Amino acid sequence: MSGPRSSTIAPVDVSTFLAGFLRREGALAEVLEDGALECVLPRELCAATGLPEAPRLRLLSPAGAQETPLALESSALRACLERALARGQRASAVLEAPSGGKPGALSESLIARFTALNGSLRPRGLRSVRLAIQVLEFRYQAVGEERQEGSLFVAHEPTLGLLSLPLADELLQRLLSAEPGAAPLESPALALSAAAVERHVERHLRARLAPLCQRLSVRMLRDAERLCEYYDTLLSEATRRRRVAQGLEASAEKAAAIQRQREEKLRELAFRYAVEVRTEVASVLDLGYSAPALDAVLLRKQRTIPLTLVRDPFLREPLPFLCRGCGEPTLALHACDEAGHLTCAACAAPCAACGRVTCRTCVPAGCKVCTRT
Ligand SMILES: [Zn+2]
Ligand SMILES: [Zn+2]
Ligand SMILES: [Zn+2]
User: Fold this and answer.
1) Torsion angle of the four alpha carbons 262, 267, 268, 273, in this order, in degrees rounded to the nearest 10
2) CA 78 to ligand 3 centroid distance, Å
């Protein structure tokens, strides 16, 4: 465990974060002028944090008489942080990253993991970058004949344009060793971040909900079969009666009515078994830590496109870029000749009709040749 790092974290920030958190949990909390935090805690919170019922908390500095000291390492503060995260709020923390391998090997292995689809990659120099990762929790609810809900976490580094689902899971495992950071501010950047990663999250969600949809469609088919059998019987009954009674007109009408009713019931069935999926960003955790990075350039014709390739110290893997075309993570990059946009292999696939490659950032609609007409 690392020592206190009060030089980078202001006690007042932690006090404000903690006061806000405690109030949301039903406590009374007030930051005093001298920085102490005076609170009255509900019993449940006392049990979770091990704090007395009415403590005067002194954060990150020596406590006076009648005060309860609260260091960054304290289990009480950690319990609060974990709870804040679990309750779908905003929080921030800093992580101590393990140091990387040998610089020479690192540079080579990083370059080797990325692919320039229509150019070449050249290393420029290794350095350490401070990553500002946002771990976004997407809370989902699938509502239908069956219900399923849960959370999907995704890690996004907006400055470098990095995206990874496995990284989010990895970082959540590391939270126990995280130090709480300053209370993050609500910002429009957050909405942008959520929008940037949404498509990747939705694709994953579809995969996660596939078994549910599969189960429901099996049930729907079974019900539909029964329904059809029932109406087939009705129809053949009607036909039989027609033969007996020779009341042609009336029976044809009756048959049409049965058909209409059957169509209606089938539509109802489809509606009943449809799955509505709702998602929302339930919490955001800002995590800061250092990572080894390789500044590189992608050379394409006369163009030189600067890139920062990052190896995540926790995941021990390179972090993929977020493709601006489709929102998916990618280690392979295609550079567009018009503006130097970088997109993934799927976005840079040749048009099925004319074979031309279109930059999906320049022309999101599709092939620049085929869509022109
Ligand atoms: Zn793409
Ligand atoms: Zn085309
Ligand atoms: Zn472009």
Assistant:
1) 130
2) 46
